[in-house]
Amino acid sequence: MQKFEIESSSNAAAALQNEILNRTKLHTEMVRRLVNDPSVQPVELAGFLEDVANAYLSISEELSRAATEERKK
User: Fold this and answer.
1) Which of 9, 11, 56, 62 could form a disulfide with 70 if both were Cys (CB 3.0 to 4.6 A apart)?
2) Within 13 A of 5's CA, how many CA atoms are on the CB side?
3) Spatial contact of 67 and 7, defined as CB atoms under 8 Å apart
4) 28-51, pLDDT tens digit by residue?
């Protein structure tokens, strides 16, 4: 996961919003492909969905960290 430099809360928030949009587009396309591929087993799709969830949790943690750092200033 990409780390973001905390220059200001608005820059950090904008970077995270961009990250969320990019990941959402990528994940949407990957889910479409996995669902339409008859050779993909349910366990493979489950593993992918877990990876997606972990990616969003990482973004959430980064956003929380940025907000906490900004409040300390």
Assistant:
1) 9
2) 1
3) no
4) 999 999 999 999 999 999 999 999
